[in-house]
What does this fold into?
Amino acid sequence: ASIASVEQAQFWQSLAKGLLDKGILTETSKVPTADFVCTGIEKWINAKGTRRLLVLLDECDSWLKADDKNGFLLTHELRRLMDTTQRKCKFVFAGLVSVRRWQVSNNSPIPHISSGAITVGALPPKDAIKLVQEPMRCLGIELSQDQDLKILSFTNNHASLIQVVCQRI
It folds into this structure.
């Protein structure tokens, strides 16, 4: 078996386990295939017209690279599922810079799945300072400008790190 097909099998197995744990899939399979998982998702969505499913996929860089070598079979299967569920099932691909690269690539199906890539990174300095100062003020804590700058230099203006540091304070 090729590396790409092994990664696809692992993907469907991992997704099936997560969906089974959440009660979305009600049947099990020793080797869950794309058809097995997609059919289970479709049944779950169709059981109630208001159901929606958002699947967050993190660290997608390596499997997108492997999927590219395999003609994007896995990504095309995810797109098919989104189409058959009338976009009631959606996928969010997260990762590093290479995930963004697939969004702008002519050969990738990612642009046909998404409504546009969102790059998440460091906050502009003004917003980063507000994220430090405003919650602290609500707690009655006034930090000096030097303390604010130390927090921002330590966190490199990344919102999640600012929140962690300020929570510790």
Notes: The first strand starts at residue 53 and ends at 57. Strands lie at 53-57, 89-93. Residues 19 and 25 are 5 Å apart (CA to CA).
